[in-house]
Amino acid sequence: MALLYADENFSYPVVERLRLLGHDVVTVHERGRSGGPDAQVLIDATAEGRAVLTFNKRDFWRLHQLDPQHAGIIRCDMREAPHLLAANIHQAIAAVASLAGPFIRINRAP
Q1: Cα torsion angle, 83, 86, 88, 94, sign
Q2: Cα dihedral sign for 85, 90, 94, 98?
Q3: How far are the Cα atoms of 1, 45, 91, 92 from residue 23, in angstroms, in the given order?
Q4: pLDDT tens digits, one per residue of 20-50
Q5: Any idea what the CATH number is for the domain that residue 38 is in?
Q6: Fewer beta carbons within 10 angstroms: which end of the chain, N or C?
């Protein structure tokens, strides 16, 4: 099980499927933090020990390069179907020893 923090534009159906797979997922909306900058999303997630789930590659990649001391960033392809994306995230989480620090890319299946 992973602690995850879905940013503002992340797919709620994927969040629901990840919860069914046993992950503890909260959203920016559920925390009452909608509309904040990506840097604040990363700060909030890291404070809770949660990896960020996002479709935003550019901003979170830049934040990761500036300071890789975070609880993890999982950047996903938004074109993937929710059930496939949730399964791919679940597999990627299982494949790493720790989510703290890495920038994980979940690309669309061919």
Answers
A1: negative
A2: positive
A3: 5, 15, 12, 13
A4: 999 999 999 999 998 889 999 999 999 999 9
A5: 3.40.50
A6: C
Task: Report residue 64 as tokens.
Answer: 């990761």
Strands of the sheet with 51-54, listed across from one edge: 24-27, 3-6, 51-54, 73-76, 103-106
Helix (H, G, I), strand (E, B) or coil at 103: strand
Alpha-carbon distance of 110 to 100, in angstroms, equals: 28
pLDDT value, residue 72: 96
What domain count does the chain have? 1
Separation of alpha carbons 107 and 79, rounded Å: 9
Question: What pLDDT does residue 108 have?
Answer: 72
